[in-house]
Structures are given as structure tokens and as C-alpha cells.
Amino acid sequence: MSSSLVLPEGGGAAAKLRRVLVIDDSPAVRSEVRATLAPAGYEVIEAADGVSGAAAISDGATELGLVICDVNMPQLTGIELLESLAQSASSRSVPILMLTSEGRPSLMQRARRAGAKGWLLKPFNPAVLLTAVRKLLPIDPS
Amino acid sequence: MNQTSQDPGAKSGLDSISIPTLRRWLSVALAMAVLAYTAGVFLLVQQIFNNFGPGVHADLEWRTVHGAQQLARAAELGLAVADSAVVLESFGDFRSSEDVIAIVATSPSGGVVAQHGLPPAGSLSAVFALKPDELHQTPEYFASWSPVSIEGAEVGRVAMFVSTRRLTGSQRLLKRVELVTAGSGGIGLVLGLVVLGFFTGAVIKRDAALAHYAATLEDKVAQRTQELNHRNRSMRLVLDNVSQGFITIKPSGVMESERSAVVERWLGPPPLSGDLAEWLERADDEAGSWFRIGVEAVRDGILPLEVSVDQLPKRMQSDGRTFRLDYIPITSTGALDEPLQNLLVVITDITDELARERFEREQREMAQMFQLVSADRPGFMRFFSEAEKIIHQLMNDHDHPPQVQKRLIHTLKGNCGLYRLVSMVEVCHQIESRMEDDRTPLTDAEREVIRKAWTRVAAQARSLIGDETDDAMEIDREDYTEIVTLVAERAAHERLAATLRTWKLEPVSLRLRRLGAQARYLAERLGKPAVQIVMTARGVRLDSERFDGFWSSLAHVVRNAVDHGIETPDVRRAGGKADAGTLALAARIEEATFVLQITDDGAGINWTRLAEKAAAQGLPHATHADLVEALFADGVSTKEEVTQISGRGVGMAAVRSAVLAMGGRVLVNSEPGQGTSFEFRLPAHVPQLQKERAA
Fold it and tell me: Can you tell me whether residue B233 is helix, strand or coil?
């Protein structure tokens, strides 16, 4: 109770733990993910492609609790993004969940080897997404 | 300490005595106890009577003799005066004694003076026949008499009769006690024996049953074992002979010991580690490592169990056979939100099933091809020769960049789709997807897959079209009427020759008819209402060879119009349009330019979305021209889903490259909600006459 009074609004350590980055080139998917996670207490930030998503992850200022990433994106695919992140040790601690219409096992395996925590298929069931997100990034629902 | 003493050693002593022996011993002991008791009681009672019987006898004897003497003295006076009342009075207490039967006082001559009681008949004379004070004994009574004398002179006699009832009564009692004792002893003995017999009998019976059971137990165990073995054998027979194998794994991926033997026949000996993934990897590296990663995800439990289990591999290959993999998660309660306990993996050999399906599909493809060939033989032959060309390029031109190879495969897929060659479409789609992923060129293995699939299709196709070459000429009724008219009008020979020369050119109407048929077929495949086709191509003819590439690339435009352009009936209705979409195909000649317009009345291009996509790709997107350019760029599609029909953004690039190759250009006009129109303008090199007529 007292700590929530002390913390400044929209920042600080508490916000970091509930911040989820959604990387998807479809605004429809991004807003659907936001609509699923925001009511559950997560702070959702967006990136419209792999390049800006990778930049947000590597940027130390944006402290993230979880990344939800599409696969088929122009320029930098989700798999390429994941593999490039796996190279740099610093961002390895952020769990990454793949959310894609892609179902090819070769890609699923590549993603897993590069450290993806899960692979969800579009169109996704919001309840399943929320379950997975809660497992990866448990927060106090208040 | 106590417990150690209760070892089997203590039991064995009892065990050594059989129950019948015990019963015999107990019976004897019981009989002896009853006899001893009876005899004891008998002897004791005897003893009592022996002790008291003589006393009673002596007492009675004394009472008789002494009583007579005592009364003789008491009765002196009475007898002297012969007064019976006085004599009776002198008898005193003897009169009230129960033992006394009678007392008789007589005169010396024997006349009765006084009498108490009644002596037994004839007994009086018998008594007086004895000497005085002598005891007369009979079983019923004792008697004696005594003389009464005063100063030596006999004045009378007194006789006393005493009953022996007391003595005989006790003797009868003794007899009765003996009888009762003996009787109760006998009854006790009988009862004891009955009870003993009953209990030992029950024990013996039980023991006999036990003994019988024990004797037959071995047989029973043997029989039951045989039954179980039989059943196990049947189960194993079932497990081993169905085309399914069952393996249970722990969440770690390690197999439980029980599993179908048939799996070993399929996959070879299992690995020592017991790791199922390792076993699968040996047979099918791809499926095995997919399984390994999938089980990891199942174990992680990030996704719900049914989702992660659904992501496990569903097919695998081993030794030329194909297997289907099914999974049944086992949790403690059976509910899927519980932690996983075991995973049952069911492996099914579906090689034969697949072969049958493939055969059926080939039959179907063959039948469809036959229909299509019958309906439009030249069209099919053109498709066929063009596909052969593409296959030839794919097989032999190793220098093509991956992008070009992918485009060729995409075109091949589209054209095969129009002729419903599903097997070819699948092969192309798979390879195209792979190339999309890693952007590397075709591998030799993929070439082989394409070659095989095409060889099969080609064999079927050739059986339908024969070795006939593409040198037939098509003339429609209009051409025929025209030449007849020219001849009738006696037109100049030059004119006739020029007209006839156009015949070797292909009527554009034929090509348009094919495009229309493709559009209708696509609509049917996509579950949309039949598309209205409006065609205008009066008399336009073109050099078929030169335009081949262009025509086949148009399949993409038609596909886009039907798949992306024309909306679903409910959306169309909401927009005030007819349920069925319309596709207009209009060809004409303008100067030396062939103009083809393909117009749909669908949703129109989503320019905003296209601009977003272009921006994401790093393409210019400021002007309409930029966006038209982007529309034809590789990899741009406004569609979210990739299907076998369209969505990769490859097709439009193929169209543009075909148009550019012919030195032409494309105009795009699209209004949101109104539809899209593509106008292709290509240099035609048409003969002079054609131009005149077109004008």
C-alpha cells in the first residue's frame, strides 16, 4: 500500500516488471495484443517492424519484462531478430514469445534454439496468450 | 523380546498333532473324567450311607429292645391293676414317635390289656414266640417284648414294634443318588462327546478343505498363470500386430519400460538412454529434433498443455515408411490444467493409407485433367508446354538468383492450380515457403522433388494429349464469315492473303476465355459466388509465342481480383453490390499497342495499408506512382495470411517483370469500395490489316 504511494506515476521499478513489447507489422495484431494484456495490468509498448523492435530491446533505457514477436516481417524477420539477440548476451534475459501465423516446424525449432519461450499461432486465443504471458511475466494484478 | 519368542518353532509342536488324534485323546479324557466323577460321587454317597446306615440300624434296634424294657417298667402298675387307660398313659412319649408302629401290653396269659397303633398281622404271636428282649427283625419292622413283673411275679408283657422305614428310605435314596449320578455322568459324557465332536468336526472339515485347497493350489496357480499368459500374449499380439505402436514417456522424454515391440521393428533398437527423441532422431532427424524441442516446451508449461502438445510433430519417416504421431497427455486427474505425468505417444504406420490416398488423388487429377483437356485442348497444351519450359529452367539454370527461382515456382504453382494439379501445387507451395524463410537457392533435393512430381503429371498429360505438337490452328466463326465475305466480294488477293496470315496469330478471345474460366474456378475454390465474366476482344489476334509469358503472368492478376478484390457476399450486400462479383476482361488494339483492361468491382486497393507496407520495406511511398510501384514490388502483400492461393506478394512482381520484358507498362486505377482496374499497354506489332479493322 505505502510503496504504491511513494512511486512516481508511469515509471520506476514496478513498471519495468510489467512492460511488454509487441513487435508486429500488423497494427491490427498489435492492438489485439494490447487489448488482451492491458486490462490484465500489463503496460504494452509497440514496434512495427523487426528493426525498431530490436532497437527497443537493445536500448537499455527501455526496460522490458517480456517481448511478443511476429515472424514474417519485412527487412528483419522475427527469427532473424531472435538469432541476433541470442548473439548479444545482454538482452538474453528478456523472455520472448513468438506470435505468428507461421507454423513451420523448422522455424519453430530455430526460434526455440535461439531462446524463444513459446510459439503461439495466429489467430490467437486471448485467454491462451494471457495464460502464457502470466507464466512468463507474473505480476501482481493490482 | 516377546516377539522373538513367537517364532514358528513354537507353532510346530501343535502342528505335529493332527486334529483327529486330538479328538480321540480329548474324547478318552472326557470319558475318564465323567467316569471318575460318577464313581467319586457314588463312592462318596456310599461312604455317607456306610457311615450313617448302621447307626440308624442300631438306633432302631436299641429303640425296639430298650423301648420294650422301659415301657415294661412304666406299665407295671397299670398291668397290675389291669387298667388299660393307665397302661396307655404309661406309654408316654413313645406314642408320638414316628418310628413306632405299635405298642402292645398284654396280661401274662397273652390277653391284650392296652394297645397303641396296630401291629402287623400275625406279628404279635411271632414276637412272643421269641425270648424276652430278643430282637425280631423283618424288612418292614423290628419287634421285641419284655416281661412286666412286680417282686418276681409276672404281671404282663409289653411288645414294641418299630418301623424300619427310616432305614429302607435312606437305602432307596442312596439307590436314587447312584442312579442320578450315573445318569448325569452318562448324559455329561454324551454331551461332552457331542460338543467335542462338533467342534473338532468343524475344525477337521475346515482342515480338510484347506488341505484340499492346498493340494490343488499349485494347479490353480498354474492354471491362472496360463490364463494370464494367454491374455498377455493376446494383448502383446494385438500390440505387436496393429499398425500402431504405443510408447509412454515421462515429462523428461525418457520412455517407460512397457511399449509395443512393433516400434522396434519400425525404428530399430532403442537407445540405451531411453530417450524417445534420440530414437526418433536416428530414424528421422528433423522429426526427432522437432519432438525434442516440443517436449521441452511441453515440460516448460508456458503454454497450456493442449497447445504445446498440439505443436509436437505429427509425421515422421523411417526406412521409406511414413508414420503418424498422436499424443495423449496423462495427468493425475485427467484434466489438462494439471501438471503432466506421462505422455502417451501413439505411432501409426500410414504408408499404405498415404499410398492409397495418393493413388486416389492421381485418379482424381487424371479425371479433372481429362475434363479440362476435353473442354479446352489448345489451352491445356499451352499450359503444358509452358510448364515444361519452367520445369526445364528450374532443373537446368543453376545461376538464377533465388528470387527468380521463387517467382518461377510461384508461376508454376499458380498455373498448376488452375488445372487442379493439387500434388504439384503442394510441392511448389512447400518449396516456395522454404525459400521465403531463408532466401537461398533451390537445392538438388528440391529439384528432384519437383522433377518427380512433374514427371508423374506429365506422363498423365501425355497420355491424354498424345505427342501432338502445337501446330493446329484455331479459327472462329467470325473469321470464317469474314473470309467467305471477302471471297464473295472478289476482294484483292493481297487482302485475302493478309487476312489469312492473321490466322496464324492467336485470337485473344481464347486467352480471355481461359482467364475467365480461371477466375470462376478460383471463386469456387474460395467459396465465393460465381464471378460474372464480361469479355470484349472482337477479332483481336496476337502472336501467341511472344505473349505466352504475359498471359501466364496474368493468372496472378485474376487471382488477386478474385481473392483480395471481390468481397464476400455479406460485405458486398452491405456496400449495395450484387452478391456475385464482376470481372471485366477487355482487349483492343490502339495504334500499334495492345491494350488489355482487367477490372473488378471489388473492395479496391487499400492504399493506406499499402503505404504502411511500403514504408516498412523501406520503399518510397509518397506519391501514387510510388505506391503503384510498391504494389508490384517483391514481397509486398496487404493480405495477412499466406495461403496456397495467394498472399506472398510475389505474383504482382511476376506480372510487372513480364510486362517490362515486352517493353510495356501498367496503369492502375483503384477507388476504395468501387473496384480496381489494371490497364496493360504492350507494343503489338500487329499486321496492317488488323490495325485497320480495329480502327
Answer: helix
Could you tell me the pLDDT band of residue B553, with boundaries at 50, 70 and 90? confident
Grid coordinates representing B87 are 397302661
Spatial distance between the Cα atoms of B645 and B647, rounded to a whole number of angstroms: 7
> How would you classify the pairing of strands A43-47 and A66-69?
unpaired
Element spanning B136, H or E: strand B136-137
Å between A15 CA and nearest CA of chain B: 22
Amino acid at B357: E
Give the separation between CA B480 and CA B491, rounded to whole angstroms: 15
- Cell triple for residue B476? 472462329
Q: What's the grid cell of residue B498?
A: 493478309
B297 vs A28, A101, A112: nearest CB: A112
- C-alpha B345/C-alpha B256 separation (Å) is 11
Chain B: residue nearest A111 by CA? B293
Taking CB atoms and an 8 Å limit, are A118 and B613 in contact across chains? no
B339 touches chain A (CB under 8 A): no
Place of cell 545482454: A90
The model scores a pTM over 0.80: no
Question: What values do phi and psi take at B383, rounded to 5?
Answer: -55, -45
Long-range contacts of B204-207 (CB under 8 A, 24+ apart): B204/B19, B204/B20, B204/B23, B207/B19
Q: How long a stretch of residues is chain A?
A: 142
Whether A101 contacts chain B with CB within 8 A: yes
- Is residue B156 within 8 A of residue B108, CB to CB? The reply is yes
B321-331 and B340-349 as β-strands: parallel, antiparallel, unpaired? antiparallel
Tell me the one-letter amino acid at B167: L
Rounded to the nearest 10°, the torsion over CA B435, B439, B442, B445 is -70
Which chain A residues are within 8 Å of B437, Cβ to Cβ? Answer: 77, 79, 104, 106-107
Q: Is A50 on the interface with B (CB under 8 A)?
A: no
Grid coordinates standing for A40? 490484465
* The three grid cell numbers given for residue B38, joined into one nine-digit string: 460318577
**Ramachandran region, residue A125 (left: φ > 0; alpha: ψ -120 to 50; beta: rest):** beta
B334 vs chain A: nearest CA distance in angstroms?
19
Contact at CB, B302 and A117, closer than 8 angstroms:
yes
Task: Report helix, strand or coil for B662.
Answer: coil
What is the pLDDT at residue B638?
A: 54
Percent of chain B with pLDDT over 90: 12
Higher pLDDT, B636 or A42: A42
- SS3 for A133? helix
Distance of CA A124 to the CA centre of its chain: 15
The torsion defined by the Cα of B230, B231, B235 and B237, in degrees rounded to 10, comes to 20
Indicate the DSSP class of residue B275.
Answer: B
ipTM summary value: 0.81
Write out pLDDT tens, residues B2-60. 444 444 444 444 556 677 788 888 888 888 888 888 888 888 877 877 777 777 788 88
Residues 6+ apart with CB under 8 A from B674: B601, B604
User: Residue B368 is placed in which grid cell?
Assistant: 479433372
The one-letter amino acid code at B635 reads G
Give the separation between CA B64 and CA A83, rounded to whole angstroms.
Answer: 146
The mean per-residue pLDDT over the stretch B127-137 comes to 85
Task: Name residue A96's beta-bridge partners.
Answer: A67, A116
Cis peptide before A123 (omega within 30 of 0): yes
C-alpha grid cell for residue B303? 503454454
Cβ separation A49–B616 shorter than 8 A: yes
Between CA B198 and CA B195 the distance in angstroms is: 5
CA separation for the pair B44, B623 (Å, rounded): 145
The torsion angles phi and psi of B82, rounded to 5 degrees, stand at 55, 40
Nearest to B428 by CA among B656, B644, B646: B644
More confident residue, A37 or B491: A37
